[in-house]
Amino acid sequence: MKDNMRFGTKAIHGGLEPDAATGAIMTPIYQTSTYVQESVGDHKGYEYSRTLNPTRHALEKNLAAIENGIFGACFGSGLAAMDCVIKMLNPGDEVISTNDLYGGSFRLFKTIFEKYGIKFHFVSMIDTSAIEEKINSNTKLIWVETPTNPMMNIIDIKAVSQIAKGNNVLLAVDNTFATPYLQTPLDLGADIVMHSVTKYLGGHSDVVMGALICNDEKIAEEIYRIQNSSGAVCGPQDSFLVLRGIKTLHLRVQRHCENGEKIAKWLVNHPKVDKVYWPGFESHPNHAVAKKQMKGFGGMISFTLKGNSLEASHEIVAKVKIFCLAESLGGVESLIGHPATMTHASIPKEEREKSGVVDSLIRLSVGVEDVEDLIQDLDNAMV
């Protein structure tokens, strides 16, 4: 029965069973560092919580279920999950990455791993031929964000997977913006799916966590080896909170999508707005790909102002009352941010602007409030 569950049922039940000891319907918070053994090596599957904790283990199984995967691994943050993937490589290896990606991802690649002899190429993947131009015998990984942060570009996962498989290269997809409710990259040929669980999966702005999901046993063994060896794991309390958050993921993302569509369509007609970046518009590059590989277009929107004024964008993000000026995204509350000086400040200005992150770009994480109030809030701030 559980193998054939639809998404909403899977979010609530996938990979989970009532607690064997008590029958508790919610996975208990196993707030323990170690586990008593009957004799040397005779234990109940748990020895030390860095290696495996029952609450985290339940979450890892649940995440694997909702991504249509087999193996899941949770980390202390999304960047810790990315760190694990890059640690699978060796000096001299090369990575082809989306050019428009989260600033923290760029910083991790450039300032941490580049000095260990791993080379990174940042290319626009809207046209997948740009990937083929960079592939060589040293290429070991393609790193994809789709939709991208913050320009909402859409990358054809299936097309990239064909390139990766044809060249014996791993494909990892950051699925944070779409969530498994809207898109399942493993079904489209990805080898590894990564999440900043902090965002939509947790969904309530109260957890920092990352995750990796895959189907290949050898890849999973390497992920677990690095997870245990490096120790960048999450705790049982946070695991419990995310398990609770995932139970309403389908309901929340439906509302994020509905509100996002209404706000995107309102913004495109506003006299002060220049461009609106949202994959649901037919004019959006690769809209057809988004329509094919996603169930909906999400609640993330970016837009620029006419005149491209840094001061005007800062004034708007400071004047809103319901939208909160803050980094992060994917919570039930609506957030507003200025990528050039917040989430993407670690990317050099010249590089930022090449991908469209200009001074007036504003990014919205549209929450689940009443959309009429959100539109009124933006309207008041843009007077």
Write the topology of this structure.
Elements: H1 7-13, H2 54-66, E1 71-75, H3 78-86, E2 94-98, H4 103-113, E3 119-123, H5 129-134, E4 139-145, H6 157-166, E5 170-174, H7 179-182, E6 192-196, E7 210-214, H8 217-230, H9 236-246, H10 249-267, E8 273-277, H11 287-293, E9 300-305, H12 310-319, E10 324-325, E11 335-337, H13 349-354, E12 362-365, H14 371-381
Parallel strand pairs: 2-3, 2-4, 4-5, 5-6, 10-11
Antiparallel strand pairs: 1-7, 6-7, 8-9, 9-12, 11-12
Helix pairs in contact: 1-2, 2-9, 3-4
State the gist of this model.
The chain is an alpha/beta fold. Helix content is 36%, strand content 15%. The strands form two sheets. It has a seven-stranded mixed sheet with strand order 1-7-6-5-4-2-3, sandwiched between helices. A five-stranded mixed sheet has the order 8-9-12-11-10.
